[in-house]
Design a protein that fits this description.
By secondary structure, the protein is α/β, with parallel strands linked by helices. The chain has 9 helices and 9 strands. It has a 7-stranded parallel beta sheet. Helix 1 packs across helix 2. The longest helix is centred in the first third of the chain and has 16 residues. It is globular. About 25% of the residues are buried. The mean pLDDT is about 85.
Length: about 260
């Protein structure tokens, strides 16, 4: 079920954990199977390494709970979902939790041998820290495509080790990812947008206002028609407002927030 590069990473994860490493961050590019990888790791964890204990998976978006739940079932696991509006069973060996829901629960999963943090670049927020502090003896496995913060700093204060998978050119060359062309929106007004000194990025609200006018969105749609007619295209937006705005104006773009 795993590809060769995923098998290689899985073996590295358990070798490093066997060396008394408590926390480990794994990097893989988007679209190369991070969920499949950690699902396999979880199955091995509860069947071979800690069969009497549980695994807790933390995510920051509701849809990720369902996505991971479905993937775990393909590995013949029967997880429980901890998410608002649904019942959950804390006795099941694998718990998939929305961090926003779990932080409000008085009763949390017990006997956890491994915590898996999906999209682990969010782990420095207080909600994640508060949950992880409740499990001082559990190992932590983070997975992300971007093991770096916007201010350029890493995650050394949380993770003991970093494993980097193959890079995007390798995946394209070996047929795991499609090749792509990248086009940017041209605007002459970026000098008017302030830069956040902490995030080292443009002010999101101001940039969104600039990029959400009809002329800019029209240029985006014209570019899609010119360069990507009948092809699948991803449009990266400033925030959650720009995507639906673009979709409403031109119909054929589906917003993903």
């Amino acid at each position: 079920m795993l590809r060769d590069y995923q098998i290689e990473l899985e073996e590295k994860v358990f070798k490093i954990f066997d060396r008394d490493c408590k926390s480990l961050l794994v990097q893989l590019p988007t679209g190369t199977g991070k969920t499949t990888l950690f699902s396999s790791i979880i199955k091995k964890q509860i069947t071979e390494y800690s069969p009497g204990k549980r695994v807790l998976i933390l995510v920051h978006r509701r849809e990720l709970v369902y996505q991971i739940y479905d993937r775990l079932r393909k590995f013949h696991l029967r997880p429980s979902k901890i998410i608002s509006g649904e019942d959950h069973d804390l006795l099941k060996q694998v718990q998939v939790a929305s961090i926003q829901t779990l932080i409000r629960k008085k009763e949390k999963p017990k006997n956890i041998s491994l915590i898996v943090v999906d999209e682990a670049h969010h782990i420095l927020s207080n909600t994640y820290r508060n949950i992880i502090e409740d499990y001082p003896t559990s190992k932590i496995l983070g997975v992300t495509a971007t093991p770096i913060r916007l201010n350029g700093e890493g995650f050394e204060e949380v993770f003991d080790k970093l494993i980097c998978g193959k890079q995007i050119p390798w995946f394209i060359k070996n047929g795991y990812l499609a090749n792509f062309k990248h086009y940017g929106v041209k605007t002459d007004n970026l000098e008017s947008i302030s830069v956040d000194s902490i995030k080292m990025d443009y002010n999101t609200q101001k940039l969104s206002e600039l990029m959400s006018n009809k002329k800019v969105i029209g240029n985006v749609v014209d570019a899609i028609k010119k360069y990507a007619h009948t092809k699948k295209t991803i449009v990266f937006c400033v925030n959650g407002y720009f995507g639906p705005n673009c979709a409403r104006l031109f119909g054929f773009i589906a917003p993903v927030i």
